[in-house]
Fold:
Amino acid sequence: MLLNELFDNPIPWKWVSKNEYNWEAGFDTGNMKYALKCAFAYQFVVITFETRATGDTGITGTGNEIAVFATVIDIIKEIIDVPTVKTVVFTAKEKSRQKLYNRLVKLFEKMGWSVSTNKKGAEGLNYVCERPEQS
Structure:
């Protein structure tokens, strides 16, 4: 199975709230509710992924990581369709999440975005994805 095929089956999701500066998408797997939050500032968007019940950003261990990650990718695709979004930033603390996010940034790179990472101490690895300049 190819990487693209692996993440082609997102869970149904919806925008819970959407205003000029903050968007929140929600979905659930039956046993866990999730939120992907986006904070827009100028041409940047900072993305936070968490469980909705606790606000925890850690690994849930529900065994649904492929479906959950496919959904995160689907939501992010809609976010980066916004022409004013030039930079997307997200952080992964756990090694297993870093492994997934390393796959996610490959999708950004395939679309021509540049990707950089930097260590954020105990907070984990910070990912910065920048849209290519339009000529």
Summary: The chain has one domain: 3-130. The mean pLDDT is 82.
